[in-house]
């Protein structure tokens, strides 16, 4: 429709004419690297094996070194131990094979009988008789024709007699090659373990770029690969031991050998489990008089596979954000084509290294996109793309997976408005008319589905007191529809008015009888003129109505108190969450006060008793807690940090990074407690801009300190009691990354250790987005 475009969306930038040159350069570099990997496999494969074994053995070397043993001796001791274990395994395999070789002739009768039974079953009358007769007749005709052909004379070339030395070298060469490779691996392994610092420095130099990112990437790779290999060993042993015991119980000869081989062969992706099952099944076929032993062996293998894949591996690996199934298959194919069977064994660890390097270095970020299992598009972009593709059912499925604990308001706040923001940004630059129609129709279907699945919790007989109006175009009205639904979920009846060009006639035609509050929605980046005109006309035609303006793309200048008053509005909001809280505060102040106040924990009496039992209120750990507060303020680069505990009546500040005003005896009344929400909800609280959050906008203590950012991590003991919070405060609004949140929780755990006198308990890893596909080989976080 005409006159509804935002008009302030920039046109797309012109395409870079040098993109083709950049792509060609990348292809050339990739080709050179692949060629070097293929041609240098004789040197690179031992080096890769040594590095991976080094990752697994590094913790043991470090453990010995920390106990006073020189590093060189630690490395030698670890390598000798590994060599002895491998030698013992080799002797075990050789002895078991020798025993089986001596016993196999005794099983010939059983094998012949079973083959005869299978052959008779195949030769029995059946559906393939006609096909078999046809094949036999063709073979007879071919044999007849060949018999009529006179065979040519054979010419045999007799060479000179070979010397014994040549024969010995011919036999020894294949045996010496793996021994030479093993020797090279041992030399590389010794150097890798002996001087890891120098190699790390050289890798950092090669990676270049940001020193922090390069260091994090290498440390992350080392931790992940070490844990991956350790977990792989544990998983394989937990599979091999029950396999051996089960085969022993069934009566399969060489049960110890097959259990050991099963544990080793499972290091080979995909083929390993298959190969480990072939040998015991074949031997069960040869040994058992009937088919019972084969059936029991097959049942044992299937049972162990199910337990290992669905219980043991998820329990040991935990939540994974590693490699996708497609990347694992592609990596196995790629490395096998380059380096043969060794490449197949090394494919997963090598690909994990590439993935971690891609996550830690912007220059290699494409590796994370290609190999990672986490979605490469955020939730709003994925929803928007499905709407553009005219697949609203897929968008609805994403929304259902995203909404947690039936919190639709949170979805609207974090993702719904962001989808509409992307639509508004693309309206003039990229979207075609059919795209706009698909998006609008898809959003209608999506919102209808949400309203049907999550109906408002209001009395149908209660008349709406709130009207939400779209400012200029369709997207403004879709935001109003979200807001009306969100208000209804909070028990506030509201009605939507469709968008229209704000004019005197439009305002005069509005039906606002019984309406106390009007909320107008704008996505425009320059809405000041339209807002002033609307507010002036609305107050002239409908005096006494309070006006809230929802600016989803608000410029910072318009959010200043003086600017808001100049617009003629009562309040300006920028998010759905803020709009719900402010409107609730204006329409139902009593309910708002109840919602703004933090709830009391169900175990508050036991929690206070646990707090008093620590004797922290007597000030015995004040200096240490002050030091932790200063460390937190420095680490997160905030104005100050405080450590507070919550008693029955007050919040007591037991640690602070700077001197704070406005507190008597280091205490704050409980109804003004900063840690109350963290204690009540037992989860980390982050308020990016306290001035935009009605729960904290009028908080007396925050206003006194002049802070705009607030984050609180609960101080949780081992038995689940939340004593208080470690809080960060800053003068300017800010956001925190997932890594920063994890670090804040870890520092809170250290604070709990000081308060309780017990060892710190690291918090569980924070949940990330679900992998886009099933993960064939989990990668530990």
Automatic annotation (TrEMBL):
The keyword Transmembrane applies. The chain crosses the membrane at residues 20-40, 46-65, 72-94, 175-194, 233-261, 267-287, 294-312, 332-357. Belongs to the autoinducer-2 exporter (AI-2E) (TC 2.A.86) family. Its main location: membrane. It is found in: Cell membrane. PANTHER family: PERMEASE PERM-RELATED, TRANSMEMBRANE PROTEIN. Residues 758-781 are annotated as: Disordered. It is a multi-pass membrane protein. The keyword DNA-binding does not apply. GO terms for cellular component: plasma membrane. This is AI-2E family transporter. Keywords: Cell membrane, Membrane, Transmembrane, Transmembrane helix, Transport. Residues 623-752 form the GAF domain.
């Amino acid at each position: 429709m005409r006159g509804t475009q935002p008009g302030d969306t920039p046109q797309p930038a012109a395409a870079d004419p040098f993109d083709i040159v950049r792509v060609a350069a990348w292809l050339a570099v990739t080709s050179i690297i692949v060629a070097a990997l293929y041609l240098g496999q004789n040197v690179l494969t031992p080096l890769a094996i040594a590095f991976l074994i080094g990752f697994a053995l590094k913790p043991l070397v470090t453990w010995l070194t920390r106990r006073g043993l020189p590093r060189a001796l630690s490395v030698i001791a670890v390598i000798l131990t590994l060599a002895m274990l491998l030698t013992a395994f080799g002797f075990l395999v050789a002895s078991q094979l020798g025993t089986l070789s001596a016993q196999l002739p005794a099983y010939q009768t059983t094998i012949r009988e079973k083959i005869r039974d299978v052959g008779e079953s195949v030769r029995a009358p059946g559906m393939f008789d006609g096909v078999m007769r046809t094949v036999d007749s063709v073979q007879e005709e071919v044999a007849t024709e060949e018999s009529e052909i006179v065979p040519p004379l054979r010419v045999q070339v007799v060479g000179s007699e070979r010397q014994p030395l040549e024969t010995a070298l011919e036999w020894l060469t294949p045996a010496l090659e793996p021994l030479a490779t093993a020797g090279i691996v041992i030399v590389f392994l010794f150097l890798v373990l002996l001087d890891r610092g120098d190699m790390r420095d050289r890798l950092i130099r090669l990676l270049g770029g940001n020193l922090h990112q390069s260091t994090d990437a290498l440390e992350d790779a080392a931790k992940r690969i070490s844990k991956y290999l350790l977990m792989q060993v544990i998983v394989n042993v937990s599979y091999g031991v029950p396999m051996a015991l089960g085969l022993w119980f069934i009566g399969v000869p060489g049960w110890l050998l097959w259990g050991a081989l099963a544990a080793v062969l499972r290091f080979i992706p995909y083929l390993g489990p298959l190969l480990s099952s072939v040998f015991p099944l074949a031997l069960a076929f040869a040994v058992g008089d009937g088919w019972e032993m084969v059936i029991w062996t097959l049942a044992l293998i299937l049972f162990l596979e199910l337990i290992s894949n669905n219980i043991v591996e998820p329990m040991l690996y935990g939540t994974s954000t590693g490699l996708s199934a497609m990347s694992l298959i592609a990596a196995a194919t790629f490395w096998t084509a380059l380096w043969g069977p060794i490449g197949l064994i090394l494919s997963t660890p090598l690909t994990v290294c590439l993935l971690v390097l891609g996550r830690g270095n912007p220059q290699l970020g494409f590796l994370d996109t290609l190999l990672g299992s986490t979605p490469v598009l955020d939730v709003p972009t994925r929803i928007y793309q499905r709407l553009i593709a005219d697949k609203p059912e897929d968008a609805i499925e994403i929304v259902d997976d995203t909404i947690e604990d039936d919190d639709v308001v949170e979805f609207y706040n974090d993702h719904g408005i962001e989808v509409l923001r992307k639509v508004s940004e693309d309206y003039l630059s990229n979207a075609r008319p059919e795209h706009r129609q698909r998006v609008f129709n898809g959003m209608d279907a999506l919102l209808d589905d949400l309203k049907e699945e999550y109906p408002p919790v209001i009395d149908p007989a209660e008349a709406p007191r709130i009207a939400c109006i779209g400012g200029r175009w369709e997207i403004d009205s879709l935001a109003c529809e979200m807001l009306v639904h969100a208000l209804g979920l909070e028990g506030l009846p509201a009605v939507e008015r469709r968008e229209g060009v704000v004019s005197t006639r439009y305002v005069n035609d509005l039906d606002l009888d019984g309406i106390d509050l009007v909320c107008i929605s704008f996505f425009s980046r320059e809405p000041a003129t339209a807002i002033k005109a609307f507010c002036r006309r609305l107050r002239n035609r409908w005096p006494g109505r309070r006006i809230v303006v929802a600016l989803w793309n608000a410029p910072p200048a318009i959010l200043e108190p003086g600017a808001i008053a100049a617009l003629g509005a009562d309040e300006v909001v920028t998010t759905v969450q803020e709009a719900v809280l402010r409107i609730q505060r204006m329409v139902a102040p009593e309910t708002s006060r109840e919602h703004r106040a933090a709830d009391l924990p169900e175990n508050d009496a036991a929690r206070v008793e646990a707090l008093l039992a620590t004797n922290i209120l007597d000030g015995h750990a004040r200096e240490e807690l002050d030091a932790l507060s200063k460390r937190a303020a420095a680490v997160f680069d905030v104005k100050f940090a405080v450590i507070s505990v919550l008693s029955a009546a007050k919040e007591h500040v037991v640690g602070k990074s700077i001197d704070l005003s406005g507190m008597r005896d280091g205490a704050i009344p409980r109804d003004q407690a900063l840690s109350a929400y963290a204690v009540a909800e037992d989860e980390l609280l982050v308020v990016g801009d306290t001035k935009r959050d009605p729960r904290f906008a009028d908080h007396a203590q925050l206003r006194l300190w002049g802070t705009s950012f607030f984050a609180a991590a609960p101080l949780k003991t081992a038995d689940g009691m939340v004593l208080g919070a470690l809080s960060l405060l800053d003068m300017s609004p800010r956001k925190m990354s997932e890594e920063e949140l994890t670090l804040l929780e870890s520092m809170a755990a250290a604070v709990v250790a000081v308060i309780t006198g017990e060892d710190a308990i690291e918090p569980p890893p924070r949940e990330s987005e679900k992998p886009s596909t099933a993960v064939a080989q989990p990668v530990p976080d």
